[in-house]
Fold this protein.
Amino acid sequence: MGIETHSETPLARAVRAAGSQSAFGRMIGRRQSTIFLWLNNDTPLPAELVLLVERETGISKHDLRPDIYPHAQASGMPVERTGVACNQPSISQRAPA
């Protein structure tokens, strides 16, 4: 029984889907000890492995790394960003008053 059996994190679910920490490690090219450390320290799955793990385990990339792959808003509209308005003329392009 591994540490992943007591956790509901997406990484733990992916490890369980693979069968064991060792099997998960073989699947992604990492040692079992690395997988244990990730689980024990709540380390996020490295970004370069997210799509592989999603494909092999069925655990969503949105769940594995929501900081990289956020869930779409319910409206389907893009997330509003604050910053420079690009649809306005710059000061140098404005007509003199």
Notes: The chain has a mean pLDDT of 86. The radius of gyration is 21 Å. Residues 47 and 65 are 8 Å apart (CA to CA). Residues 3-69 form a domain with the 434 Repressor (Amino-terminal Domain) fold (CATH 1.10.260.40).
